[in-house]
Amino acid sequence: MYIRRLELNDLNSLLDLRIRNREFFKPFEPSTPASHYTVEGQRSILEKVQHNWRNGSGYGFGIFLKNNNSLIGRVNLSNVVRGAWESCTLGYFLDEQYNGQGFTTEAVRLALQFAFGPGGLHRVQAGAMPRNKASIRVLEKAGFRYDGFSEYYLKINGVWEHHNLYSITQEYWDI
Length: 175
Fold this sequence. Notes:
Strand content: 25-35%
Order of helices and strands: EHHHEEEHEHEEH
Structural class: alpha+beta
Oligomer: single chain
Helix content: 25-40%
Number of helices: 6
């Protein structure tokens, strides 16, 4: 697999991925309106990805299979803050049929390579619901360290959920 910047020509593939995995992603994501699962909704998301890349406030990547270049997920470096912090938050999702094969961990590692290289960042943080063992495993395998527990951290599927917080800095990435 490989990651690359999402482009507007990924629209149909992204829409297909989101529609096929709608129920699978639902317990792990904020609630989305029905328009999210339309061409217009995904076009808006991809336009925001492009805007964020241009102004350096976020970097949205697609996760693609090498053998057929099909889009199987996303990994995002969001909420980029410069200055004394030089940090961002990490998010990701992967097509249900490819879970458990190491693709997400590899995509996260590649995103970190970008973050600590061309992205010029010092710290990447992520949160995972304590019951989301697979996501926690991805973060730990990618080198993230446990920072603590945050109650009612994000509204996921209509409910304020607790999260375990993790981070990695460039110093630990270099080890």
